[in-house]
Amino acid sequence: MTTVKDVDARGMQHCETTALGVLLRHQGLDLSEPMLFGLGSGLSFIYWDGKNMDFPFLGGRVKPFDLTRNLATRLGLELLVQETTSPRRAWENVTAPIDAGRPVGLQLDSYHLDYFGSKVHFGGHVVAMYGYDDHDAYLVDTAQQGGAVSTSLTSIAQARAARGPMTAKHRSFTLTVPRSLPSPRDRIIPAITACADAFLNPPIANLGHRGIERAGKLVRTWLQRTDNPRRDLPQAALLMEKAGTGGALFRNLYRDFLADCTQLLDSSHLRTGHGLYAEAATLWTGAAALITEAGESGEAQYLAQAGTVLCDLSRIEREAMQALSRLRE
């Protein structure tokens, strides 16, 4: 069995921040999960309903791996990413850093992992790997999935080779912390304003505050969108609250990031943004509960209420991001 020494196998709430935490703590950089998420400009929104989808999806963060790239750029980390179509080369790309004493990040499809109880294809799942033997790979996943876990070599090969939405070609990555690391405090304002700019100026109507407003209109039709509302609506709400989001579709994480920032920076714009995101987090959890109730009861009134909440959320988050964008002043 080959394992990296002194790995802090602490599972967090979200998969990508969990993996980032493992890789960075191993090099002595210990940032809270909200700080990792916020410095990576992780917050976003998408209403996704493709032709090949059984039911719409509400996403609350940037695309998989964008958070990692953003964080590396902001803190001046050396990010080495490797992709290949060769399973043999892919395995070598993982074992080499582990043999050299470094944990490695992997992007894969969680459907194939042995320890996942909910078998849903998600090609944007990220884990940290710190060891292997002849039969198993040893990983760190979210606290919800067990933290330090293991899965068979066969399952991880299938997970890494999977193709479909959000998948990558056997992607693996390592991070190197520079000797002269910029202070995370100094990178807070650029991280927040970049996130605000993207949220306030989405290129299409399904993204950012415009996407939330669109969701508020379309969620009212969800009972007609499915043949099995008792399954699909509670499942959609569960993904908003429990699927590695930290609750409230990642708004709890961003609220806590902004709260930490108010302890480091004295800014009325920052305090305004934090207060509005605290309100938004509560409303997102309420919207998820209404969607669940609609699915279980079959009554459209709950979706109408959820639609109203989402329209309010579009306004609240727009105002929050407008305040936060003024930090650059």
UniProtKB/TrEMBL annotation:
Pfam families: BtrH_N (PF14399), DUF4872 (PF16169). Residues 155-324 form the DUF4872 domain. Residues 14-142 form the Butirosin biosynthesis protein H N-terminal domain. Coiled coil: none annotated. It comes from the Bacteria. This is Lantibiotic ABC transporter.
